[in-house]
Design a protein that fits this description.
By secondary structure, the chain is α+β, with helices and mostly antiparallel strands. The chain has seven helices and 15 strands. Helices cover 23% and strands 19% of the residues. Strands 4, 5, 6, 7, 8, 12 and 14 form a seven-stranded antiparallel β-sheet that branches. The longest helix is centred in the first third of the chain and has 17 residues. The chain starts with 9 loop residues before the first strand and ends with a strand.
Length: 307
C-alpha cells in the first residue's frame, strides 16, 4: 500500500513524514499463522508479529461489551449514544482503567486462556506464565502514547517476555492505534543506556531522588524515550509502521521494540485496548506484576540502590 493514499498520521501532536521510506503498513503474518518456526523467524527479523483476524471477533466484542458497560456505570459514556459505540462525555479524556480488567470474565478468558495462551505456548515451545496485571485503557480524543520500550517498566525478571496489544473494537487511523518503529529492536547501540533502567529504581544515597520517588510517589526516570516521534525515527532509521486494526487482530512484540500510538483524532470516541504480558514459565518473573494484588509501580514496587 502506498502511503500516498493514507491520511496524515499524527502521533503525540506531531505530523509524521508520510514518505514511503519513513512510514508504512505493519506486516501481516496471516500467511504463516500456524507456522511457528516461521513466526519465530519473523519476530527475530521484525521485532513483532501481527496476524489479522487471528482471534474470534465475537469473543473480542464480548469483552468490549463488558468493558463499555463498566465505563457506562462510571458515568464516562454519553447516554445519547449506544453503549457499544463508546462515545465519551465531553472532557472525559484519558482513562487508564486496569481495575476494570479485574473480574471481567470475557476479557480474562480472552487474554489468559484459549488461542492467546496457546499461541505463546507454541511460540516459546514450553509452558508459559502471564502477568496477573492487565493494562486496560480507554483513551479519549487527544494525545496518544509517546515512544518507549516496555522493558524499563517490567525488567526485573526475564527480558524475553512479550507484550500482547489487544484492540477491543475496530480502530481506524482517525481513532489511532499502536505503531512500531521498524528495526528498532536491533539498535542496541542506541537502546542500551535506556532500556535496562528501572522506572521504579532510585538511588538511596541521593536525597532528591528519595524525596521524589519514596516521599512523593514519583519516578526518577519515567521510561519515556522521547516526546517527538519524528525525531526518534530520524535517529533510529526505519519507518513508523501501523495499520487500521479490527477486533480479532493479534499483535505481539518484544521488550526492545520502540513503539508508540497515534493520537485519537475523533470527536468523542474512546479507543479501548489492553496490554498483557507472557513469558516462559522457566524464566524469572517481575514480582511487581504477579499475585492477587500486584504492587505495580506503587510504593511496594520501588527499589532503592546505592549509586
Amino acid at each position: 500500500m502506498s502511503t500516498a493514499t493514507l491520511p496524515q498520521i499524527i502521533s503525540y501532536g506531531r505530523e509524521l513524514d508520510m514518505s514511503d521510506d519513513k512510514f508504512g503498513i505493519i506486516r501481516d503474518s496471516a500467511d504463516a499463522a500456524n507456522d511457528f518456526e516461521e513466526l519465530r523467524r519473523r519476530c527475530d527479523e521484525d521485532g513483532y508479529i501481527y496476524i489479522k483476524n487471528y482471534l474470534d471477533r465475537e469473543k473480542v466484542l464480548d469483552a468490549r461489551r463488558e468493558i463499555v458497560n463498566r465505563l457506562d456505570k462510571e458515568g464516562i459514556l454519553d447516554p445519547d449514544y449506544p453503549t457499544m459505540d463508546a462515545i465519551a462525555k465531553p472532557n472525559s479524556g484519558y482513562g487508564f482503567k486496569p481495575e476494570m480488567a479485574n473480574g471481567c470474565v470475557p476479557l480474562q478468558e480472552l487474554l489468559y486462556s484459549g488461542k492467546v495462551t496457546d499461541f505463546y505456548r507454541q511460540f516459546y515451545g514450553e509452558n508459559i506464565r502471564h502477568y496477573d496485571y492487565t493494562w486496560l485503557r480507554a483513551l479519549g480524543p487527544g494525545l496518544g502514547t509517546n515512544p518507549h520500550c516496555d522493558l524499563p517498566y517490567m525488567g526485573r525478571g526475564t527480558n524475553k517476555h512479550m507484550t500482547c496489544w489487544m484492540p477491543y473494537g475496530d480502530i481506524s487511523f482517525e481513532l489511532g492505534g499502536l505503531m512500531i518503529l521498524e528495526g528498532s529492536h536491533k539498535r542496541m547501540d542506541l537502546l542500551e543506556n535506556y532500556v535496562f533502567r528501572d522506572v521504579d529504581g532510585y538511588c538511596e544515597n541521593n536525597e532528591s531522588q528519595v524525596k521524589k520517588v519514596v516521599d512523593d510517589g514519583g519516578w526518577s526516570f519515567t521510561g519515556t524515550l522521547s516526546h517527538n516521534p519524528p525525531i526518534v525515527r530520524s535517529k533510529f532509521g526505519g519507518r513508523w509502521l501501523t495499520t487500521e486494526f479490527e477486533a480479532g487482530d493479534f499483535l505481539t512484540f518484544g521488550m526492545f521494540l520502540v513503539h508508540a500510538s497515534l493520537d485519537n483524532q475523533s470527536k468523542n470516541r474512546l479507543r479501548i485496548s489492553s496490554d498483557s504480558r507472557y513469558q516462559r514459565a522457566s524464566e524469572p518473573i517481575d514480582e511487581r506484576w504477579v499475585g492477587a494484588n500486584p504492587p505495580g509501580h506503587g510504593p511496594n514496587g520501588k527499589r532503592g540502590l546505592i549509586c
